Amino acid sequence: MLHTQGARPTLASVAAIAGVSRQTVSNVLNEPSRVQAETLAKVRAVLDEVNYRPHLAARQLRTKRSRVIGLRLEQVTDGINGAVLDRFLHAFTEGAQRHGYRISLFTADDDAGEIARYGELLDTTDIDAFVLTSTHHGDVRTEWLSARDIPFVTFGRPWALPHAAVSGTAPHAWVDVDGSFGTRSATEHLLSSGHRRIAFIGWPAGSGTGDERRLGWQQAMRTSGLGDDELDLLDLQTADGVNEGAAAIRSLTGHPAAPTAVVCASDSLALGALEASRSLGETFAVVGFDDTPVAAAIGLTSVAQPLIAVAEAALDLLIAQLEDRPDSTGHRLLPPRLVPRRSTATPPTTT
Amino acid sequence: MLHTQGARPTLASVAAIAGVSRQTVSNVLNEPSRVQAETLAKVRAVLDEVNYRPHLAARQLRTKRSRVIGLRLEQVTDGINGAVLDRFLHAFTEGAQRHGYRISLFTADDDAGEIARYGELLDTTDIDAFVLTSTHHGDVRTEWLSARDIPFVTFGRPWALPHAAVSGTAPHAWVDVDGSFGTRSATEHLLSSGHRRIAFIGWPAGSGTGDERRLGWQQAMRTSGLGDDELDLLDLQTADGVNEGAAAIRSLTGHPAAPTAVVCASDSLALGALEASRSLGETFAVVGFDDTPVAAAIGLTSVAQPLIAVAEAALDLLIAQLEDRPDSTGHRLLPPRLVPRRSTATPPTTT
């Protein structure tokens, strides 16, 4: 052992052991390209030997980077749909830590509150960047950050500018999951089991995420030969929630299109749909969205978002900005995956 | 309006408007007791008028407080039991924000990793305190922090010293939920519905939390007249998990004590128990623990931890330490609440 037990290695002690100047050790740590290969190898061997931990605070001061990423913790709703953002938070925090970043968490009641919080954090702390979740039409948060040149990435595409997003000229970095791909897969799964009249229980038109999820169902149904009039009949719109999903199913009794299956925009809606279906003695096949723990628990087929990949992509796009890499306003649209379970295992009882 | 639109008010501008010195404005902000009442009122009126926001960073520098609380985000397990800690995180973050504190999140694989992370954070950032979750026997994290005089509070009592904890000489601040109260309530609920032979599905002896939950069931069963031999027969021990709960129920077929109901140490175990019970065509009454979203979704009676109250108490004990108030090593043991649902709605079919 080259170092005394308990004494913390310093630049000076490393320099003494390696027989070089302190400046050389500093160069090895901070500007290795300026150091000769032989010296580099020798000093690095000593650094490893004494388990030298560069003082991060000093490094941060030098690079003017805090390595802190701000993230708003969204409010818990029914504990079902919120699980997705909690899982994203876990994945993002783990990924960020691997890259030497920490997460600073805050809460806000709405977009205005979130912006106020950005201002406060930027005023009072060192924060490198923000991650935004739940983007929506007319999202003023991204404008605010863009106008101030503050690095950020969104989980959710910029809905205000769908065409810009699709054509690759998105105004900021974003990661999203292809919702229409998810509901299209779900609908095709039901079609392949023999269902023909498949309803969609989703949110009223106007929400970016909800409209995307409706779109995938529409696409698959049109491909299967359904006309727009029939589609309209099968398109049930409601607020999100377990009770709302149950009410939608009850409204199907004596429905002119007599659907045998439903694709839902969320697991909350699907849970209500499944329970109402059972209590009516019906056997509607039901698919949810988000593959929450509740879906796994009750045997509900659901569409799973690849949250670890989302977190990794978001981190990658954020670090690209912080390091001034060219893809700093890039975006990634990731496909979700259908997880088939009991709720879609039986073919339609009426055709 | 006394101030120019867009110009940010400063000590100097406030002083100019109020007709006092900058030092007086500073005194009003930091040492109001040194300022005459009339001057205080005048300056405060100007501060309000111009919406002066004291520069928190400067204040932090002066008070040597960062107003940052570190918290380890625990790994997601089956997405069922983890929901409790996610809900605690939400409640704690919201409470902390109301008190002007932010949460710095990190992850770790185990206690040693968590301690390494404490060291790194303390070395490199300003952090005021830590919140620890999932305390257990021989928890080295609390020793490490105590030895260094670092403010912290635990969600979970100090299991290594149960007697000290109970007698009020706990070595550190903690908040916990009274698990034995919860399972006692659950067992009494079943007894009052006519069940007599009630099994317990819990974790092997040795985990503080698990032993507490077993204790409450034992207490209620003894009070109902059961002897220790019968209790031993009804005490099923297994690892946590949905499959484990199902296996425990299947082991009850032809069981000598012929139980009609089970109290479980977790919702994961209870979910497995309920599903296995249904697939066997049995009608075991089942109670879970933690009142997770899954319990609500499947109609499972469960014991709910008062997580908002836990978060408030933890924050209160933490701030007491940071402000050197006398109850800085206090503790709070909060009672949980039984949430009855369908899974315990039917009386026993055999007696």
Automatic annotation (TrEMBL), chains A, B:
It holds the Pfam family LacI. PROSITE patterns: HTH_CROC1, HTH_LACI_2. It comes from the Bacteria. Residues 332-351 have a biased composition (Low complexity). Residues 9-63 form the HTH lacI-type domain. The keyword DNA-binding applies. GO terms for molecular function: DNA-binding transcription factor activity; transcription cis-regulatory region binding. The keyword Transcription regulation applies. Residues 10-53 form the HTH cro/C1-type domain. Keywords: DNA-binding, Transcription, Transcription regulation. Residues 329-351 are annotated as: Disordered. SMART domains: HTH_LACI. This is Transcriptional regulator, LacI family. The lineage of its organism: Bacteria, Bacillati, Actinomycetota, Actinomycetes, Micrococcales.
